[in-house]
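Weekly modeling sync, notes
Attendees: AB, CL, MP (scribe)

Item 1: holo prediction request
CL wants a bound-state model with PMV before deciding which constructs to order. AB pointed out that an apo prediction alone won't tell us much about the pocket. Agreed to run with the ligand included and paste results into these notes for async review.

Input as submitted:
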Amino acid sequence: MKAVARAHPNIALVKYWGKRDLALNLPAAGSLSMTLAPLHTETRVTFDEALGEDQIEMNGVEVLEGPKKARVIAFLDGIRAMAKLDAFARVVTDNNFPTAAGLASSASGFAALALAATHAAGLELSPTDLSILARQGSGSAARSIFGGFAEMLSGTLTDGSDCHARQVAPEGHWDLRCLVAITAEGEKSLGSTDGMLETMKTSSYYKEWLHTVPPDLEEAHRAIDARDFEHLTAIAERSCLRMHASAIAADPGILYWNPATVRLIHTVRHARRDGGNLFFTIDAGPHVKVFCPAAECDAVETLLRQTEGVYEVLVTRPGPGAHLVT
Ligand code: PMV
């Protein structure tokens, strides 16, 4: 009735932005990401007949109420129904990186919770079924079930049973680094779900954005297979900028960037003109993730640390999928 699992966050190279079904949390299009080590969430789940309610501790703090707790309880309810289990659970979860600041802690969080809670409930799910389950907590969490490079399939079925991630290449395939330049403290202002919904409702660029995704996915497969950094640079930057363009064109416009975000975009492009191999991507927050080959990591780290407005730089590499910890 007890299990501990670890999962890593991931960063999308071809972005997910928009849903085809809100209740089932089905994405409107596919996406493709790299799973990031050594950042991780570690989650312990214990189902206990003696508990009178679900208890959730996040990063050392007991979560007594609010939307975060409700989201975890709804997720546990799904697992209890699958396992035909009545007991409440104690969930203790810790991130070794800053939470809720556009670093996709919901991805590693729901991937770790899916694996730990199903295992504690006595269920043995395949990676595909775990990915379907994790998706119900957070779309990007479906990708964190897999290591290396993972693609999310949007699927076509209304029940979401074909809407899961799959591995594109294992973590040993390409020795890239992803440096996370943190440009703000505290939680982001508008969560990704609200940002997506506003974009879908009010942005005249939303439909155009969706059309760009399938060809970018196809090209990203080829670039990753061939370890073609220049090609991946072009795909990842345009996917990121078009996703943000669709949000910026919402009414009122949604702008996740701060001055340091913009400064970093220019810094990266400038360094590339000077011969460096590096590109940026940005999620629903102000931080900038910069990819480069392992050999250029030290130089890129120095460059990012020298940029005004950067608080911290985290160096990451391709990581494994969600796994149990004994
Ligand atoms: O999984 P969610 O609902 O937190 O949405 C993630 C959205 C982005 O991070 C902006 C893009 C992505 O594909 O991860």
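Recorded for review: The two ends are 14 Å apart (CA to CA).
Action items: CL to compare against the apo run; MP to circulate these notes.
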